[in-house]
Structures are given as C-alpha cells and as structure tokens.
Amino acid sequence: MYKMIIVDDEPIIQMGLRSILNYNDFDIEIIDVASTGEEAIEQIRLHSPDLVLMDINIPVMNGLEVMEHVKKEMLSPPLFIILSCHNEFEYAQKAIKLGAIDYLLKIELTSENLAEVLRKTICQLKQTRIQTDSEKDGLYMKHVSLVDNFFMKLLNNWFESPEAIYEMMADLNISFQGCYYDSIYLGTLSDPDITETLPKTAAALTNLCNLITGLCKNYCQCYIAPWNFNSFAMILFLSPQDDQDLYNDLILPCIRHIQKMIAMYQNISLYAGIGTPVTSIDQISVSFNESKAAFRNCTNSEALVVYSSLSRKICHPFNIGIIRKELTVALDNYDIVTLRKLLEQIPELILNYIPDPEQAIAICSDILHFTGIAYKGSDHILDDIFVQENSYYSLYKCRTPVQVTEWFQAFINDLCRKVDADFESKKNWLLPSIKKYIEEHYREPITLTDVSACFNVSCGYISTIFKKNNGIGFTECVTQAKIRHAKQMLLRDNAKIYDVAAQLGYSDPYYFSKVFKKYTGYSPKEYMTKEKS
Hints:
Elements: E1 2-7, H1 11-19, E2 28-34, H2 37-47, E3 51-55, H3 63-73, E4 79-84, H4 89-97, E5 102-105, H5 111-130, H6 133-156, H7 162-172, E6 180-187, H8 202-216, E7 221-228, E8 231-238, H9 246-266, E9 271-274, H10 284-295, E10 304-306, H11 324-332, H12 336-343, H13 345-353, H14 357-374, H15 381-385, H16 401-440, H17 448-455, H18 459-469, H19 474-490, H20 497-503, H21 509-520, H22 524-532
Parallel strand pairs: 1-2, 1-3, 3-4, 4-5, 9-10
Antiparallel strand pairs: 6-8, 6-9, 7-8
C-alpha cells in the first residue's frame, strides 16, 4: 500500500477528499489528516508518506512553504498533489517547479480527474520503487559518505589532533551550533527474547534518521546516523538558556519525546544511553563511549540510562586509536599478514582483561565500524563478509567473552580472505589500467600520488602490485614509458632536446639527458646522431 496524507484546514473538505474515491482501488491508504502547514511537516516526518494531497492555502505555513521545507529536509520526499480554490497561475507555476505532480482547482475537482492524477502519481511511485535496494544503498552511501565519515571519525576518536577535526569541518562546511555536546547511543535491545529491530534498508534507515532529527527540533539541533543493525549514534548540540537545566529541561525531555513518538508511530521501542555533556569537540568521543556504557545498562524496565548516574562507571578500556595507523596502512596495502597480526591481539585482550561480554562486543563493534569506513577495496566490505543471514547479528547474541572471541576470530579469517581476494581481483584489472594511464599521460609529470588518487587505491598498494606482478617498480615503469616515446620524438625532423624534455614533463633538460643515458646508454644527442647516420 502507498501511504497518503491529506492536508486541508476545512473539516468538510477533509471529509470530501476522504470519500470522493475508494483509495483502496489505487492501493493507497490515508494514514493521517493535517489542518496546518506545521502539522503537515510534523506528520510527514512521523509517517514518511509516499504522497501528500494538500491545499495550497493553509494556516501557519502555506503549501509551497511546506514543499520547500520538506524537500530541503528529506532525502526522499513524498510526491505532492496541490489543491487550490483559485486559478493562481504563479502559485501553480511555483508548485510544479517544486516538483508537484499536478495542480488541481477545488471547484473543478471530480472523482474522474483526481483518479487520473492518482494513476499518474502511482505510475511514478512504481518507477521509483523499481530501483533496487542496492541502488538505494548506493544513493545513501553517496549522500552520507563525507559528512557521516567525519562524524564516525569524531565519535570514534580517529582524528590525530583537534586541528585535524577543524580542518575537515572547514572542508565540508560543517559548523556546530551550541556550547555543549552530548552523545546518545539509541537503539533496540539485543535480548534474544525481543524481536524488534530497526529497518534494514538504507532508505528506511535514512527516513527514520530524518524523523528523529525532526523530533529533536523543539529541543536542540542534532546529528544522527545508523551505528549498527540495532542502534544509532547521536550527538545533541545544546544551547541552554540561563534558567534551563541541561539534563532536566533539554536532554531528558528530548530523548523521552523521541522514544514516545517512535513507539507510537513506528512501533519500535528505543532504549537510550546518555553520555556526559562536553564543551570541547575533541571530547565528543569520550561522551560517546560513556553513552555506550550507559546503554549496556538499559533493561526492559529502564529504557533510559544516564552515564553519570551509574554506580560503576566502566567504559571499555580498548582505544582503537592505538592500532589505527597500522590498521589503516594494512588495509590500504592489502597486507593480510600485518592485518591478521594486529587483529589477533583483540581476542587475547578480551580473554585476559575483559570479563564483561557487553564490553567485549563493544570492542568488536568498534573495529567493525573502523574496517567498514577505512577499507577502500570494497564499498560494502561488511556486507561482502557477512553474506549469511544473521552472521553479523550473531555477535550481539554472544553471552560470554569466549563466544565473542570465537566470533571475532571467524571475522578475522573472513576479512583476510576477502582482502586477499580483492587484491587478486584488483591487480588483474588495475595493473593494465595504470599502464594504459601512463601511456596516455606520458607527456605529463606522473606521480604515484596522482595515480593513487585517480584509481582510489593507496600508494603502497600500487607499489606492491608493480613489484610483485610487473617485475619493475611504478617509477621505473613511468620512466621507461617516457624514454620509449623520447626515442621516437628525438628522431623527428628539427627535434630539439629541450623541446622533447619539456613535452615529456621534464622541466630540466640536463636531468632528462641524464635519465635518457641511464636507460639507453647514450645521451640524447649521441642517440640522434647514431640513429640518423
């Protein structure tokens, strides 16, 4: 069924629109009715409808303003059918420009012309739904790749310095509104007796994030993104008034409002762990670790836990920053020997120092997130590894540290197999592709860094595949290509050595001559004389 909301400020019109057609014939369900623009926006956030049948002249915020607001806020906004009492051409023109399916006059509205518009609308919705889940995931990843990666790094303390945080914020035009920042871990419980889970498609998760963001707006600004299959990571940007208490007036009412509305409209019970508010951006990761520790204390009877209220305050002692650089290099270079050596320290750490299975799960979850973001060999590395249903979810069903380490050891084996397979697969097309690139750009200065950026692989990986599979290194391959073309260019009529050097990307003719002699045994001048005689 397609979900539809009706928006009109006149109750008699609302009733008429409800009864003018049998919407079931169009596979449409009317899920709610709104009387003002403000109510319309709230219901669109709550329900994520497929289409909205809306009067343009409604109180508080008119229909055009509603459309503008929703299109800016939502990644996948609903389709709009606009109604009006008057033939206002400018309104109609702007509505269509904003993406309205059609603009209907109320005085001319009949069941026949509304049915015609609905058929056109359903046709467009079906075309949208034809898009596969993988395509939706791809769209989601493109949308979130830069901003969400920044926040994932921030929450996990993957930045090398506070300066690096501010530099990336400037690059992405991200600004934090507020003088306090609080991290929230929001999700469903991993109790095997509880069957509730979050949506599993990227599009559905995006809509749920949009909904929660909208629910926050009366309290503060926020950032939220999926963390794993049953939870979200959330940051509140807080600016309390002088007479407001940070917890009692902002944080707790905001989270309780989210829990209430999501339970009411989405039938999902969300539990929340709340970290300690901080005033420095580089301390957000500390608050987030606290929120995860607080969440681990949530129960069916206690849906919200504040870290500062815990009698035993323990965040898991493992900081992935310790191995971050080495792990990144190993993943970038497809170095499974180093990768295995680094990751096999984790089971030993858990068995010797982590008696709490929830803390052990948190450590493994952190590494999974880092791997998913840091690995460049596949866009969906975790999806590729966890191909069997529930293989990823089974981590959260572990009840002892031993079970967690057994799960993680299996993950290490699968990850190394996948990385090794990616190395073999990539080298088969990457090596000839880079050679072709060199041949096509031999007139330019070609650096390893440039080629790395062009093919989205690390410099270390390119060096490795050239040494292992080409017999010569990358730099030597570039030089040989340039010298091969130099031989042809030097034999052309009226060829000048300094011209040839410049055309091949050498700014210094003397250096070019030196390199040429090293590879051919002759200086350019000697070569020209020998070949032309």
